Structures
1.
Amino acid sequence: MRRVLHAFNYREVQTPTFEEIELFLAKSGPGIREEIYDFKDKSGRELCLRPELTAPVMRFYFGSGLKVEPKPVKLFYFGPCYRYDRPQAGRYREFWQLGCELVGDDSPEGHAELLHLALGLFEEAGLKNYNLRVGHLSILRSLLEGLGFPPKEQSPLMRLIDKKETEPLGEALRAKVDARSADAFLKVFEYRTFDQLKQLSGSAQTQAAYAHLQRVWRRLEGFGVDLKKVQLDPTIARGLEYYTGLVFELDAPDLGAEKQLLGGGEYDLSSVFGESPVPAVGFALGFDRTLVALEKSGGLATTNQPVDAVVAALSEGGVAAAQRLGNRLRERDLCVELDLSAKGAKRSLGRASTLGARVIVLLGDQEVAKGQATLKNLASGEQVTVPESEVLRRLESWLQAVPVRA
Ligand code: HAM
């Protein structure tokens, strides 16, 4: 995933695990307080373990030289987050997020490239079964406004929409509007195409959102994204309250209730830091859930890195030569296991086979006396004794003959 992020010119940043709680209370919404691990330090400061990294990364952005760099600025992060949730399958109190923030670009092209990147991360990881849903908050917000709910009354409704709790949502709507208008609003939950979306009220914001989404789709197509895996979903509300426009979520249908692997969207946190507006968009993926999804689909690559060579001293006399050779091979970035136990070839061969090493280099009294080493290719069984100066060449030619590192 890091490789993909570098290919898209994202730079990695790290921020502290704990922050002032105010940072999150400012814009993430009141719901976040219950989810936060908070505490006071010895000076009575109200701190917390970070529940997410967007606000910390933006704090870093505005507090560093990054904010005067030419835009867009592209940042990514990978680190632990903490939420005081009721733990269940796929929902942990400590979990890892990998995410990125694109600062200073609100174009459909920038958004499409970010979505393309999000999909690229899963493709690279080997996850095949997923679907991405993309929407735009202006659509919901302008519909709610049309029904007579001004922005400051929309939060509780947006929370119900986020959780897809359509029954309590219907009740909340009917408390203010007639049943027909409430039902018409609830119909949006069935909309999945641009044609359906077109039927919605022609408010200027809805039209702009519609045009923006259509451009994003065109650009996704240009990137070669498989549009069968991307769905229009005007009912994405997102749990955090800082989102402003484009929003998206990615699910792995193979997982149970906690199937959302990634979430993100457009936001602007500049006011939290007393700065003038800067558009930003980003996402975070739940790394733990991604691993579970990969495991379920059989796509989790082995985590054991292959051992290129075991370098074994067969006797006391071979120890110094084995150390020297080990150093040389490791300088070449080869993965080397040293066996300096000097307990004989049988034991060292047994260890090499347990490790699944590709080659073993044996250094006994005889070899050392002649300035030689014995190499055995553990895949083919071929064994040769060569001068020490030729060990590296022979080893590398054997390693190249088999696929080196997955
Ligand atoms: P979020 O949707 O709250 O967004 O979290 C992103 C992802 O983190 C979720 O889709 C999920 O996979 C994972 N996740 C969340 N809570 C848990 C948990 N308790 N256990 C395991 N995994 C979890 C954000 O955090 C935003 N900061 C994303 C963003 C970046 N928006 C803009 N930029």
Note: The CA atoms of residues 145 and 152 lie 10 Å apart.
2.
Amino acid sequence: MELFGKALRTGRRRIDLGRGSIEIEVERSPFGHIVRGSVSGRPGRVEVLRLPAPPALLMNNWQSWGPMMKLPATARFPELEKIYRDYSPHVFSPVPDVLLRGLESAYFTAWDGVLPGFLASRIAHPFFEVEGGDLVGRLDYFDAAFDGDTPLEPLAILRGGAVEDLLETYGRLLRTESGARVPRRNPVGWCSWYQYFGRLTWDDVLANLDFARGDPDLPFEVFQVDDGFETEIGDWLTPRAGYPALDGLAGAIRQRGFLPGIWTAPFSAAETSELFSRHPEWMVAGPDGPAPAYRGWGRTIYALDTTRADVKAWLFDLFGTLKKAGFGYFKVDFLFAAAMPGRRSRPVTPVEAYREGLAVIRRAAGRDFVLGCGAPLLPSAGLVDGMRIGEDTAPFWKKKASPFAGPDAYYALRNALFRQFLHRKLWLNDPDCLILRSRDVGLSPDEREAYALAAGALDNLILDSDDLALIDAGGRSVLRRALALRGQKTAVHGLWKDEDLFEIRAAGPSGRPILGINLSDAKKAAAGMEVDPRSAAFPRPTPP
Ligand code: 9PG
């Protein structure tokens, strides 16, 4: 294993890059090695670690929606070419060239017995790629220059044990390194998206509010209005026709005893928005002016340059105004846009720009709940309370062909299992909404139950997204049982066997099995439990 081109060993070293330099100090830790250091000059894309690639490894995508899964080192994703063309090259990586060439694992990777992982992404983009039979870990500093001593993103090289144990150790190191404050409160909520999507009307919200009010089976604290209320992406303060003004919207929710929550894509501006037409100069730019960030809502979407003082003031005002209107829970979405490479007012890295923008939202939100979505994961550490850690769920299962290709309950649930090691380390994990209705849905009762019980056993955020009138007695019972499972410290096993069979166990030495989850299409056995296809099962009580 080579660190900056030389055999890994403890001690201090200076690496001259010509265009810059790096000082490192390598220490032994009980788990392996930790590399810390500093950067100066214009380092660009730097090779940090190199070793022969293992045959298979865990790949983790950069952001919320991207997959974490086990793959052969030779894996490629040719389907990304079309996604880059039709949607955006910026959505799954700030170094899209790397992900198109082959496997890119952001922040860390792992296989049986080894986990190399960076502990922060405050300035650089840390990633691993497979190159001519080698696994190479790199830090990309883009074109930014550093005069003082800028901290290197620390790297841990963990050895020994199963991937599940390595991930647990890595998660603990991430928590220490980030100093993230994980909220003690784990709110239960309703979200409009996976029932009403963009067709949401104000009457739909009112009907669900009135349905939930006083119903002990539907113990929501938060009522979150998702995408659909706004006139344009970027024009958040002027709801669409048919909606009351924002204070009326929040007021109606509060009046019924719920905490009002609202969705925004705060770093995005549609070409047709007031925001864009008033301030084209606020957008991340290319050689010919504003650079498209992605396609959405049938429009070209631009990204705010979050290094600008006027943009920061606008963001601070936006969330201040939402708070004043009465909202206390903010789902902030499509956050990746602020981390796209491009020209900004100051020559910082895309990661630094992103963190500057998110820090403003954090400051404006104060102690209110901020849920990140479509967000670069490590760069959000310490700035959000909750984080979506997977692709959108959907009222259907295993329909899409690629883990990068859009909503699907199977892929969403699988990510929640793979990324459980981040829960209560950097934030509360959001496995995406439960769908519990028995009509207007393509999920079987077993699939709905497996999703909900997994979310509960993982102690994750529980948000329901249904026309509440369509949840029957069975669905209500699933929600009750899912909520009753929360509050346990658990870990997921079965990440390396590649069988779509997972066990949620009590964390720590007892390792008591809590729930078996079978995402496959065949009946399987786990820890003495028989689990039906696409189902969850509890272990049988051991006879006295
Ligand atoms: C609202 C939704 C929901 C959902 C979010 C996010 O690639 N795309 O076109 C794409 C569209 C929507 C999307 C993700 C990707 O979903 O995850 O919970 O809030 O926005 O529009």
Note: The radius of gyration is 23 Å.
